[in-house]
Amino acid sequence: MKKVKCPNCGKEVEWENNPFRPFCCEQCKLADLSKWLNEEYAVVEEIVLEEEGDSGS
Question: What is the pTM of this model?
């Protein structure tokens, strides 16, 4: 059975039948969500929005 490391704590867990994948448990899943909500993680690529009415043609 395939095992992966939890991205939060590094514990090896089985991939199949894991309801929290890629995390090992609900606590690690919620810890990761908390980091996103507290802006400890961020997407670094700048997103460019098209102006309204700019169809590009």
Answer: 0.67
